[in-house]
Amino acid sequence: MLDAALAPGGNALDAAATPSAAGGVRPCTIEDIPAVARLFRATFTDRLKAGGRPLEVLLRRELFEHPWRDPDLPSLVFAGPDGAVSGFIAVRPLRLLFDGAPVSAAVGGTLMVDKSIGNPVMGARLLRSYLNGVQDLSLSESANEISQVMWEKLGGRTEAAYSMEWLRVIKPAGLALASLTRRFRMAALLRPFAGVFDWCAARVRANPLRIDATFDEGSDVDAEDLVDALLALSLPYRLRPDWDRDSLLWFVAQASEKERYGPLVCRVVRDRKGGLAGAYLYCVRPGGVAFVLDIFAAPKSAERVVDDLFADAKRRGAVAIRGRVQPEFADLLLRRRAVFLHASSMVVHARRGDLFAPIHGGEALITGLAGESWSALIGGLFI
């Protein structure tokens, strides 16, 4: 049954047009938000916290107030024969330029189903309907193993170079304590001992994790100055978002709401002559693992930008830094003692074979603000 649901072909909304005893896929409407929110709360219980923002408000904003919202690329729900919503996939329109020419794309994520319904093909039908949409390029940077298999059966490809996360330890004892405290609150009593260990380790010249504080040369900037820098730094990518100032400001604003990681910090780095060397944005708080959304660097300036990021995170008290691997920075990150891990996969489905060339060549800007990591559904807290 699952293999049949994953067979390529069909129109995205065929299932909605024909009544079925098993239900079908249809576009998500604003009236579906309460049902989608209930499904989200049941699926992602770890993101719920007293004092968080109402999930319905966030879903309305991301699904129906998106600056690139396209009625031909709606998010989708699976509705039973009684009309009740039991499955959902978020479809976020993505306007891309490939060598200057526009490309229609969409990011698919937050795939979830009500497991109590007992319908094993809901997720597969939602994914197939999304991939059969009008877009030329479909992608997701958050596919788990089950989703990855479904994508590949439907003709998608896993892009290994974009499917890793990097982690750079700053304070090893502090990182161990932060991980332990998430499971056992009483472990926080060990904080003074971890602090002493890391203080001593930082003063050992042979310590391979030492970070030179003198590399902290960048400047904190507001969202508007960051956007000006990103618009310039994104131009060299062959495949990149077709941002303008208003749309990019909207994405940065959403990325600022990641309470699990800390406040958003925007930095611009300049070279010795005052020229733009690079920029980055990340969420960081003392004693936490900083979360990097994007790093941008001008040619031959990557080292200056990454070194500034590490020094800035150390100054702000982070115990480690993590982010999505961008292929153009992979070698540098390895040389800076980062380790690579796998958390989720980048999967891509394209109707045009030429769109794979910039992705395979590391010339595509398709993660972070260009993917789905900007969403407050990732790293945000809700009620």
TrEMBL record:
InterPro entries reported for this sequence: Acyl_CoA_acyltransferase (IPR016181)
Highest taxon above the source species: Bacteria
SUPFAM superfamilies associated with the record: Acyl-CoA N-acyltransferases (Nat) (SSF55729)
Protein name: Uncharacterized protein
Organism for this UniProt entry: Bauldia litoralis
